[in-house]
Amino acid sequence: MVNDLSVFEDISELKNYAKDTQELLMKEKHFSSKISVHGNDSIGIYLKEIGQVNLLKPEEEYELAVMVDAEKKARLDYQKLMSSQEPLTKEQMDYFQDIFRKADFAKSKLIESNLRLVFSIAKKYNNSGMHFLDIIQEGNMGLMKAVEKFDFRKGNKFSTYATWWIRQAITRAIADQSRTIRIPVHMVETINTMLKTQRSLVQKLKREPTDQEVAFAMNVTADKIQAIKKIAQDPLSLEKPIGEEEDSSLGDLIADGDVLDPMEYASKEALIREINQALSTLTDREEQVIRLRFGLWNEQPKTLEEVGHVFQVTRERIRQIESKAIQKLRSQNQFELIKYYAELQ
């Protein structure tokens, strides 16, 4: 075992490693390249391809995460070695090459085993004005980011952690790329909600809903719906034929907003468990303040003043309690999970 050393002896070895790393990134894109851009029927081929990859067991996920983490330390060791300019022995080179080979394998396995999660999340954004295959690709890039950022020491399930990065990558890409005029991420979410509400009402009413009906279902004004429609300048018919035989419609590919995908359901349940665990580290009052302020468990978020009335204290006192609680959660890297769950509701 070699201590506090790193990677390769000369620049040619380093270039070879960089090439290998690039090949790993390209391997992930291999899945998207299998989907022909000429027809949506090939989405079935993609699903079949990713469906052949087994899901990871918790112990397998842990072992792979450890391999990826070992590479991070090796990179730091390499920088130290470069400053000393000491050549590596063959034994040292073999040792570190083994570390990086294992890390490449681990990243590939984590990515491949979670591509179904990406597809599950991507379906929620299919009618967003961005090509579905591009949405999947952006989600895959978010997954790759999650693999690099994941810290197994925090005790989080990887799929729960990855869901946040996947969703963030997709929503940002939609906001940045789907329209010439940039639409804020929160407005993209609002547009998606409106489109899903319209679809639900079409199925229920057997006709196109009026703006007033959509507004009532979303608990907003009809003027707000009209404003959203003006921003969403690329409406698509849910009856638009797709596929080589044109025997399916665009609506068939849109996830039912009333039915949670099994994989997403499992991920959400895991997220709830992790949030409960994080909240258990707070005092009772801090926990209640966070629950009320962020509207956890399908409640409406409350203002500082409203929470103050609940506890019969000033809004400034609630702000202080909230600030202290958030600081605790941030120190555990758990605050982003709570923000993410609040956005999901």
Tell me what the structure shows.
A two-stranded antiparallel sheet has the order 1-2. Residues 1-39, 242-250 and 256-260 have low confidence and may be disordered. It folds into three domains: 11-177, Four Helix Bundle (Hemerythrin (Met), subunit A) (Up-down Bundle); 185-253, Winged helix-like DNA-binding domain superfamily/Winged helix DNA-binding domain (Arc Repressor Mutant, subunit A, Orthogonal Bundle), CATH 1.10.10; 280-344, Orthogonal Bundle (Arc Repressor Mutant, subunit A). With 345 residues, the chain is mainly alpha-helical. Helices cover 67% and strands 1% of the residues.
Topology at a glance:
Elements: H1 11-33, H2 42-51, H3 58-84, H4 90-112, H5 115-122, H6 132-149, H7 158-177, H8 185-205, H9 211-218, H10 222-231, E1 241-242, E2 248-249, H11 262-279, H12 284-294, H13 304-311, H14 315-331, H15 335-344
Antiparallel strand pairs: 1-2
Task: Count the E strands.
Answer: 2
Task: State the low-pLDDT regions, or none.
Answer: 1-39, 242-250, 256-260
Secondary-structure content class = mainly alpha
Mean pLDDT: 75
CATH topology of the largest domain: Four Helix Bundle (Hemerythrin (Met), subunit A)
Residue fraction in strands: under 5%
Number of domains: 3
* CATH architecture annotation name of the largest domain: Up-down Bundle
| Physical arrangement of strands within the biggest beta sheet | 1-2
Shape: globular
Q: Give the C-alpha Rg.
A: 24 Å
* Largest sheet: number of strands, sense, barrel closure: 2 strands, antiparallel
Termini Cα gap: 50 Å
Count helical runs: 15
CATH C-level name of the largest domain? Mainly Alpha
Provide the helix percentage: 55-70%
Order of helices and strands: HHHHHHHHHHEEHHHHH
